[in-house]
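Researcher: I'd like a candidate sequence for this fold, 173 residues long. If you have to choose between options at a position, lean toward the conservative one.
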């Protein structure tokens, strides 16, 4: 049961992931959460760091899509600024929109990485679809109300995982 919640890697930030890293893992595609993965949950606009990261990945042939549980309005604002495709209201960890994202990007699970800051949504959902999962530290220490319960459960799961396996935060892949 705990295996479903176990990320393949744990990174301090997604921005150290390069196209070279992605290709060296045999991957071609990144699905990424938005809130507290790339951008603080209470900030509205894409940062230069996000725009540069997406630009570099796409210039090197890596397919990228934002997969967020947040509202259409919130996700569209960032996606429009970055010109990155997205699926909002994704209802992660449910499988429907993971599968839809893979279809839209013409990607297979074995060539896809899911990046996110929540074990209960991003990592569980990605693992259920047999994607490589990368758990990142949240951009901001606080969360919106809807995320607080998930963070409580996450702390319990992470403690149990740490007893069974070595878990270390890394700076890059």
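Model: Candidate sequence:
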């Amino acid at each position: 049961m705990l295996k479903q919640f176990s990320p393949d890697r744990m990174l301090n930030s997604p921005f150290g992931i390069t196209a070279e890293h992605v290709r060296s893992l045999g991957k071609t595609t990144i699905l990424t959460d938005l809130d507290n993965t790339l951008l603080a949950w209470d900030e509205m606009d894409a940062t230069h760091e996000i725009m540069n990261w997406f630009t570099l990945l796409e210039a090197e042939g890596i397919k990228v899509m934002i997969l967020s549980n947040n509202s259409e309005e919130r996700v569209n604002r960032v996606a429009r600024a970055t010109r990155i495709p997205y699926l909002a209201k994704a209802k992660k960890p449910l499988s429907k929109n993971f599968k839809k994202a893979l279809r839209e990007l013409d990607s297979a699970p074995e060539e896809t990485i899911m990046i996110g800051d929540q074990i209960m949504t991003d990592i569980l959902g990605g693992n259920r679809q047999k994607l490589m999962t990368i758990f990142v530290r949240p951009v901001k220490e606080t969360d919106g109300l809807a995320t607080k319960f998930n963070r409580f459960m996450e702390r319990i799961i992470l403690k149990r995982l740490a007893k069974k396996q070595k878990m270390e935060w890394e700076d890059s892949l």
